[in-house]
Please model this.
Amino acid sequence: MKSKIESLCSSVFLYVCEAYKHLHAHPELSFQEKETAAYIQKQLAEMQIPFRSNIGTYGVLGVLACKNPTKKTIALRADMDALPIDEETNLDYKSTVSHCMHACGHDAHVASLLGVAKVLSQLKNEVEGTVLLLFQPGEERHPGGARLMLEDGVFDTYKPDVIIGQHASVDYPVGTVAFRAGQIMASADEVHITVKGKGGHGALVHLCNDTVLCASQILVSLQQIKARLCPPFAPMVLTFGKFIADGSTNVIPDEVTLAGTLRTLDETWRKTCKEHIRRIVRETSAAYACTCDCELSDGYPSVKNDAIITADAITFASEYVGKQHVEELEVRMTGEDFGFYSQLYPSSFYRFGVKGSTNQHTGNLHTSTFQIDLEAFKTSVPVMAWLAYRFLTNTK
Model:
């Protein structure tokens, strides 16, 4: 079977490259992926793979039923949204859309999964089980396409025994994959604070409620959560990238807004930390005779790779690419809405290397010069196809 998958992956390589170039040139922002979804549906239809569409906005679920389809079910996930970035590469297939670019590799994820679908569809009479091809919108934007697809019943008919996701990474060379069991990515919650008071003349501060000073103190006080309230072995980040006090040199505004992100790897501490944030914001505002609004809605949960599934995935990937090309994935405080799946189903989320000879000096993820070496598809497609086959035939 390995030699068959190798041969089939080789035969679809150019198809995957062309799909990638098309998707890269025509990016769409989160929850606007109408044409991307239409392209995916057209490809699945040509492969004669049944699908559902418009799940959780523009999500698509392809259902590849092999022999004895009820034996075991595996879901393979690819996200498909782009970012609001102007592309600054010299690629002949660079983005044709102003201020919209696939700077996170989601186009590579979709192209890879289409390649996997093409390969597995030609093996469906030799494999038992069902393969769910999950094309997901809105990974880059709250509330997250994963959440919306789950709420829309994406798995109501077919419940996966295993979910596998992969992500492009410039931290690893082409031909390499990286796995890690347990918590691998942080939860991601947005923090929005509005401080309100009586503004006025900067020289007559005794007649005002100094909203700017109050907001500044809130910002500083919140940083003490990590120093004095957070358990010492619970990693967390609380960062504010937005502070708007729209006054002037001598004008204190009536309102100041702050916006930031909370990241943690501990779901219990995540809940407790939110309570501390709300309390500190409320009590600090009161100390300055101001009022406040603190919006701290639930964002993405942390991504936790199932220990047994990931151990098997490492074994299976090593069978295909060799142990020397399987790395240990680093823990990151970045977020991923794959966490919604991993909270509910045995899952493993891994990375494949995209750094090669053609992109040695290009940018990182989420930058205007990000690009991948197309040779990466010689790993991303066969490894995912091989994992699907091995999990479906695994007798554990």
User: Anything to note?
Assistant: The mean pLDDT is 96. The first helix runs from residue 2 to 25. The domain at 2-186+302-393 is CATH 3.40.630.10 (Aminopeptidase). The chain has two domains: 2-186+302-393, 187-295.
